Amino acid sequence: MTATATSARSDLSELGRSETALRTFLHGLPGVDQVGAEQRAAQLGTRSIKTTAKAEAIDLAIRMVDLTTLEGADTPGKVRALATKALRPDPADPSCPHVGAVCVYPAMVPYVAEVLRGSAVHLASVATAFPSGQAPLEVKLADTRAAVEAGADEIDMVINRGAFLAGRYSEVYDEIVATKEACGDAHLKVILETGELATYDNVRRASWLAMLAGGDFIKTSTGKVPVAATPPVTLVMLEAVRDFRAATGRQVGVKPAGGIRTTKDAIKYLVMVNETVGPDWLDPDWFRFGASSLLNDLLMQRTKLTTGVYSGPDYFTLD
C-alpha cells in the first residue's frame, strides 16, 4: 500500500465518528449518470466469447456460486443434499469444480457444516434479521454470533434500509461495525437490498458506507424483493469497489444475488467484472453469484461443451 493510500484510509476511517462528516462525504461522491450506467451495462452485455474462453468462464462461474436455499420450509435433509451437491456439482464428472459456498439460514448451519467440514467450500449464513433487517441490534448480533459458532465462516447481513433512506447513516455504519466485530474471523457480506434504494446514487452511497464500516463484500439483494440484482446496479457497485481500493488500498468483493439464472447471464456479469475492475476480481474470493437455479444451467452448458450432448434439466438434482 502506498503512503497516499495509507493516509487516505486513515482519513476515511475517521468518518464514522461524526454523522455530519459521514453525510458530507457520502453526498459528496460523484453522482451516477443513470443513462450512461445503463448504456454501459447493456453494451457489455452484448460481448461474445469464444468456445475455449466460454468453457473457462463456466468453470469460473461454478466456483463463484453461493448455492443458496432460504425458505421457511428448509429441512436438515434438504440442506445436507445441497451441501453434497456443492462439493460435487456433477457426480459423473470429477473434473467439475466445486462451488464457492453454501448459503442457508442460521438454524440450518450445523447440518451443512457436517457435510462441508474439511472441504474448500465456504459456509455462508444470512443473519441480522434477514431479510428485513428490522430487529434490535442485540438480536442481530446474537443472530450473527450463533451462526458463526455453529460453523459459518461467512455472514451475509442486511442493512437497515429504513435508517439509510432516512439519512441516519451513522446508525447503519455502527450496525455494520458491530456485526463485523461479532463475525470474529468470518467474512462479512453486506446486503444493500438495492431494489429498495430507489436511485443509483443511493447504491453508490450505500456501497461506500458498507466498505467504510469494514464490510468484506457488498451484495446487491436478499432475493426476497421483486427487484434483485441488475447489470447497471452491479456496475455501480463494481465502480465503487474499484474506487475504494484506489483510495484505501483495501479490496472488497461484490456479490450480485437474485434473478441470475442462466449461463448467459453469468458470463455477462463476468465480462462486466473484467472490463470494470479487471482480473483481480475474477476470483471466488472477490466475486460471487448468489443463486439457486443458476448452477444447474451452468452444468447443462458445461456438459454440452464437453460431450456435445445437451442434457435436460432433470439430469441434475433440483435445487
Automatic annotation (TrEMBL):
<dbReference type="GO" id="GO:0009264">
    <property type="term" value="P:deoxyribonucleotide catabolic process"/>
</dbReference>
<protein>
    <recommendedName>
        <fullName>Deoxyribose-phosphate aldolase</fullName>
        <ecNumber>4.1.2.4</ecNumber>
    </recommendedName>
</protein>
<dbReference type="GO" id="GO:0004139">
    <property type="term" value="F:deoxyribose-phosphate aldolase activity"/>
</dbReference>
<dbReference type="Pfam" id="PF01791">
    <property type="entry name" value="DeoC"/>
</dbReference>
<dbReference type="InterPro" id="IPR013785">
    <property type="entry name" value="Aldolase_TIM"/>
</dbReference>
<comment type="pathway">
    <text>Carbohydrate degradation; 2-deoxy-D-ribose 1-phosphate degradation; D-glyceraldehyde 3-phosphate and acetaldehyde from 2-deoxy-alpha-D-ribose 1-phosphate: step 2/2.</text>
</comment>
<dbReference type="GO" id="GO:0016052">
    <property type="term" value="P:carbohydrate catabolic process"/>
</dbReference>
<comment type="similarity">
    <text>Belongs to the DeoC/FbaB aldolase family. DeoC type 2 subfamily.</text>
</comment>
<keyword id="KW-0456">Lyase</keyword>
<dbReference type="GO" id="GO:0005737">
    <property type="term" value="C:cytoplasm"/>
</dbReference>
<dbReference type="InterPro" id="IPR002915">
    <property type="entry name" value="DeoC/FbaB/LacD_aldolase"/>
</dbReference>
<keyword id="KW-0704">Schiff base</keyword>
<dbReference type="InterPro" id="IPR011343">
    <property type="entry name" value="DeoC"/>
</dbReference>
